[in-house]
Predict the 3D structure of the following.
Amino acid sequence: MPRFSIIVPSHGVAGRLSLALDSVLAQSFGDFELIPVSDAPGTPAAALAAGYARRDSRVAPVHSPPSAGLSGARNTGTRAATGAYLLFLDGDDVLAPGALATLDARLTETGDVDVLYAEHERTPWWDGEPTNPAAPLLAGAPKDAFSPAEAPHVTGVRLPAWGTVYRRAFVNEHRLAFPDGHFTDVGFGGLVTVHAQRIAVLRSVVVRHLLRRQGNRLNLPGAHHPELLDRTEAVLTRAAELGLSEDRSGALFEQLFAAVLKTAAHPDRLTGRRRRAFFRRAGRLYRRHRPAGFRGPGGSLGVQHRLLAAGAYTAFRALRGANRKAAGAVERLPRPQGLRTRLFYRRRLRRRIDPNLAVYCAYWGRGYACSPAAIHAKAAELAPHIRSVFLVEADQTHAMPDGVDHAVIGSRRYWEVLARAKYLVNNANFAEGVVKREGSVHVQTQHGTPLKKMGVDQSTYPVVAATTGSFTKLLGRVDRWDYNLSSNTHSTQMWERAFPGSYEQLEYGYPRNDVFYTATAADVARVRRELGVPEGSTAVLYAPTHRDYHTGFDPGLDLEAFCQAAGEDVVVLLRAHYFYDGGGRRGTGRVIDVTGHRSSEEVCLAADALVTDYSSIMFDYANLDRPIVVYADDWDVYRETRGVYFDLMEAPPGPVAHTPEELARVFRDGSYADSGSTARRAAFRSRFCQFDDGRAAERVVRRVLLGEPPEAIEPVRPLAERVPAPAASTLVRS
């Protein structure tokens, strides 16, 4: 029997789950079993947990359906546990270094106890000093193990379930379980207090709890708050049945109703009618369960106790100032340039949202491109009743396809459609001044799979952070998102970390990559002709990424020399990062500059192979199942300066070259396309091409624009069943 069973529910925190599991497996004390609880097989958290189980026999994943919530996940983990003691850890928390050794030592000192309460840190998600709210609660407890009557103020009502150690036999003996619904810690902790006979405390931090940017969901407005009264009633009823002493029942009663009164008085949690109903029911519970001889606290809280006992809701409202307006977030003011434009936009915001208007934008207005363009095209087919407007910069209007309605960024029509559109789709972010209206739907399509650090994860990299601007403003833009697209579980997890918000992740694939499975041989031949690729040549797409520590575009490679050394049939398609698409370069000899071509997807279709350094284009190009070579001449500098999410050198999509000579050699000797390259690419595709199957745009249109339920959306076709567009070299051989 292991000493500890550590149960880690993971619903909604897949992006940080690895940190929690790593913190357990890194403990110096190793006598434990680790039980991650995920929603179902195949989910990101389940796949992550399965990987840990393959590497460490102490990891034993189990599953609990999302409908069972946090309580169901914890109860499932408890049933699977075999350890002497249970320790719960939320999926976005970490165990402090040495925590298990400290807990074991304390339990050895105290002997068997029913419950061991420990301290914890609450760490602000972004900035600020951590706090230790449990320290003052445990400060007055006896030094050794004690009975509840010796320190009745030490209860589980004011302490979280995570970071507390429970004797498994005690939990099973009294059939203790986390109650369904909300405020499950209060219900479980209260019942533990009622039944416990022997308690100890540990005045040392065991868990570091991350305060979520979205805040505690229990504190948000909603119809869930009466469940706090359900938990309170259940605990007090059990206490009465067991005949707890006056001191114990009084302390428990006071702590439970401190939480109840805090909710009743909070200006945001309950609306007027709900607050009145909550108060009246709380008053009835108060009068029914008030222990004999109970004397309420002094001061303002004592007055609240008396008003609750008397059912004096009007006086309670006056005391607490509950008639003040709710202290909501400050409304973001629209800030378009020019007073007349600002007034125009504000007037349009007062008009009714147009339910059949969708606005699209790609790369800050650089043209008709990427996933917004793919969704726009599919919407014209499946949702023709929705009027679509594409937003572009003035110098890109000439490149807009025929029949695509568009508005110039900054114009009056631009602000008009932004103010009234029901649907807003972008692969970057809309302008700072755009207001998220109630009833509007914002879709963030992203424009790549993240290898380099993104969003708030950039904050620890000074060179990048300096060019990112205000992270507070960035998160304000994230707060407008309703949906965020993902093309693989890696992206799902990283987006959750990089852009913390309350949006819904859509694991539908990237619509821009649909063409890799729908394009025909004729499409490939057409694009090669348009780009000027000589017939019978091997077209190598060279697409280096942006360097934050470079000024201007530097190809990093002598491309003419590469062509000469790689083979007489090799031509290079040079596509610089979109930051440099206005550079005015021209192709010379066997180098064709395709940076200004309207579609990176078409350029990929034309290429027989890809050479890139660390650009996310490798993840998209992998869908074509064509050779990829990584040219990593400055990987160490890039990794340290820009920050990356995984070591590309450990899992590349093909051969890795570090010098121009190595790069030329892999093409000259054919190793860029040999069996080893194919095997590496297959593993890469399995990991990063999970959801791109040619139907991503359709899934988005059906779910978002047509409102079809998630279960009605056609699932992603398995990778083995997909047939990518043929390469030109394949056609020549055929």
